């Protein structure tokens, strides 16, 4: 199977910026929940985490991420979204603008 082109991976990252956490109303990239987007044997693999292991939005966020990336890359690549817990998420992973909107000190 052929590898996704770099622009496919860029499209995947861009699509993930449209996936909003339903509780915080900020995108998963700005929240620091997306750890990696890469090609793996011709598939677009997204590694992401949740704010806590018991996050009530974990299933919906995973499916929203998969659907957003699949829509962005069309039929050109398989999409695999994996929830990982290492490293554990912390508020320090939130980007500056998102941190300010949450009332956190920007890093």
Detailed description of the structure:
It is a single chain. This protein is of the alpha+beta class. The chain has helices spanning 6-16, 58-73, 96-101; strands at residues 34-40, 43-48, 78-83. The chain has a single domain (6-89), classed as GMP Synthetase, Chain A, domain 3 (2-Layer Sandwich), CATH 3.30.300.130. It contains three helices and three strands. It has a three-stranded mixed sheet with strand order 1-2-3, covered by helices on one side. Helix 2 (58-73) links the parallel strand 2 (43-48) and strand 3 (78-83). The longest helix is centred in the middle third of the chain and has 16 residues, at 58-73. The radius of gyration is 14 Å and the shape is globular.
User: What's the level 1 CATH class?
Assistant: Alpha Beta
The count of β-strands is 3
- The CATH architecture name reads 2-Layer Sandwich
User: How many distinct folded domains?
Assistant: 1
Q: What is the topology, as strand order, of the major beta sheet?
A: 1-2-3
Spell out the CATH superfamily.
Fe-S cluster assembly (FSCA)
Range of helix content: 25-40%
CATH level-3 fold name: GMP Synthetase, Chain A, domain 3
Structural class: alpha+beta
- From the N-terminal CA to the C-terminal CA, the straight-line distance is 41 Å
Which residues sit in consecutive blocks of at least 5 with pLDDT less than 50? none
Principal-axes geometry comes out as globular
Quaternary structure:
single chain
């Amino acid at each position: 199977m052929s590898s996704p082109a770099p622009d496919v991976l860029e499209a995947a990252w861009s699509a993930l910026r449209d996936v909003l956490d339903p509780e915080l109303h900020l995108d998963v990239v700005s929240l620091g929940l997306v750890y990696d987007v890469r090609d793996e044997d011709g598939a677009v693999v997204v590694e992401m985490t949740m704010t806590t292991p018991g996050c009530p939005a974990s299933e919906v966020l995973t499916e929203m991420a998969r659907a957003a990336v699949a829509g962005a890359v069309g039929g050109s690549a398989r999409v695999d979204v994996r929830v990982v817990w290492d490293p554990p998420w912390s508020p320090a992973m939130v980007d500056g603008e998102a941190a300010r909107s949450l009332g956190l000190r920007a890093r």
